[in-house]
Design brief:
Blueprint: E1 2-7, H1 11-22, E2 27-30, E3 42-45, E4 48-51, H2 62-70, E5 83-88, E6 91-95, H3 97-111, H4 115-118, H5 138-144, H6 149-159, H7 171-180, H8 185-193, H9 201-210, E7 215-217, E8 222-227, E9 232-236, E10 241-249, E11 260-262, H10 267-275, E12 282-288, E13 295-298, E14 308-315, E15 318-325, H11 336-344, E16 352-357, E17 392-394, H12 407-429
Parallel strand pairs: 1-2, 1-10, 2-7, 5-13, 8-11, 10-17
Antiparallel strand pairs: 3-4, 5-6, 8-9, 9-10, 12-15, 12-16, 13-14, 14-15
Helix pairs in contact: 1-12, 2-12, 3-6
Length: 430
């Protein structure tokens, strides 16, 4: 009998296991993969480490920043960008970062203009009535702006790295993200995707793991979690059963439907789990020959296989370009000629040397990339998952109270689940 069983070893699960074991509780920590990190994954490519999943952090994100300071880990400065390319109204345009901002920011500011009105206190989702916007999709907002074809493509391209389906993704989450950054879209983009962790995400994960005394068992996928009235029974694939007084279930939203959870999830939570979130994107790392001019390129969803490309690192005389594809099926990472053709639309002389990627969509332990909630879920259903389900608590960046979809939110969610579990254990013992 353990005090707590933590299931999932992404940032949420690692934080929960560390915090609980540091408080003296006996913790068994189960992970289906053969590694820690979840949807952050610093793997090997081109003879160096690259981040195949989540990678970025920021000093304005309180939870991840606290962890970085705790372990003396800094952020790496992003590469300065010399040129912007954007595909709009059937043509490729180019300019300096300042020129691109002059074109795009007034348009994207219209898209998110009411973010602070809808979320005046982002830490309190009930601070304003979000009923109307929770019914709307990204497509609804885009259509309401009455933009020209060129303007619509510019806005679409600016958002495309965060979009898989405009008709399936809820407007509320974009407004919420912007409100978290004081209503400024540019600030959100900086916090979400510019500053890598020095030494990579694995460095921070290893530091957290080093402070945990939980019994970590990798390659131990869980099939069932049951609150039987006196404790929690966790069934590992193959039939082994583990008992604990409490459980923290810190796995991606899109994998919850594969678990037998007892008591069964009901109502809106069950519907959200069954529908899954819609993000089916792809992140590509491309090694191109030579130290080329630094650039960012954006293209609208559905109009080009690569929707965002950005020079990220120099490596052995070459340049590494990170690409985001809104539809994982739009391009094959093994087809280097197709990747080169896609990038040459923006940089005609670019020469692809090698390509690397991880398929998060077919990965059984993720079944999608970062979360973007469907209409109606962010402010109404997700908060229900912050409540205890008997002796079972949910955690993860997908259901984070604030930093939804990112490392900061995962850490926040894991820490909260640990605190709530500790209180429940204390109440049981009293």
């Amino acid at each position: 009998m353990y005090d707590v069983a933590v299931i999932g070893a992404g940032f949420a699960g690692m934080t929960a296991a560390r915090d609980l074991s540091a408080d003296g509780y006996s913790v068994i920590h189960l992970e289906g993969r053969d590694r820690i990190g979840g949807r952050t994954y610093a793997g090997e490519a081109f003879g160096r480490s690259v981040e195949f999943g989540g990678a970025y952090a920021h000093w304005t994100q309180p939870n991840v920043w606290r962890e970085l300071e705790r372990y003396g880990i800094a952020l790496a400065a992003p590469m300065a960008i010399d040129k912007l390319y954007w595909l709009a109204d059937g043509a490729v345009h180019s300019g300096s970062p300042v020129e691109y901002a002059a074109v795009g920011e007034p348009l994207i500011d219209r898209f998110v203009a009411d973010s602070r009105a809808q979320f005046p206190r982002p830490f309190d989702l009930s601070a304003a009535d979000t009923t109307v916007i929770e019914k709307q999709t990204l497509a609804d907002r885009l259509e309401s702006l009455d933009l020209s074809p060129y303007e619509q493509d510019v806005v679409d391209g600016m958002m495309s790295s965060l979009v898989h389906s405009y008709t399936e993704q809820g407007l509320a989450q974009f407004l919420f993200w912007t409100a978290l950054n004081v209503g400024h879209w540019r600030s959100f983009i900086e916090t979400a995707g510019q500053w890598p962790i020095q030494g990579g995400t694995r460095r921070l994960l290893d530091a957290i793991a080093g402070d945990s005394t939980a019994e970590l068992r990798l390659t131990s996928p869980v099939d069932a979690v049951e609150d039987d009235g006196s404790g929690v029974v966790v069934t590992i694939r193959g039939g082994e059963r583990v008992r604990a007084r409490q459980a923290v279930l810190a796995v991606p939203l899109n994998t919850l439907h594969d678990l037998r959870i007892t008591p069964e999830l009901t109502g809106p939570v069950r519907r959200m789990v069954e529908e899954k979130h819609p993000m089916r994107t792809r992140k590509l790392w491309v090694r191109v020959r030579g130290e080329i001019e630094t650039f960012v390129a954006n293209a609208p969803v559905g109009k080009h296989p690569v929707n965002t490309a950005k020079t990220e690192y120099r490596h052995e005389g070459d340049t590494l370009v990170v690409c985001f594809c809104s539809d994982a099926s739009s391009i094959d990472p093994d087809d280097h000629d197709a990747v080169q053709r896609a990038l040459r639309l923006f940089v005609p002389e670019i020469e692809v040397v090698d390509v690397a990627a991880h398929d998060w969509v077919t990965d059984e332990f993720s079944q999608g990339t970062w979360v973007h909630h469907r209409p109606g879920n962010l402010t109404t259903v997700v908060p229900l998952m912050h409540q205890a389900h008997g002796r079972i608590r949910f955690a993860g960046g997908d259901i984070a109270p604030m930093g939804v979809g990112g490392i900061d939110g995962a850490i926040q969610s894991g820490a909260k689940a640990a605190r709530d579990s500790a209180r429940a254990l204390a109440d049981d013992r009293s």
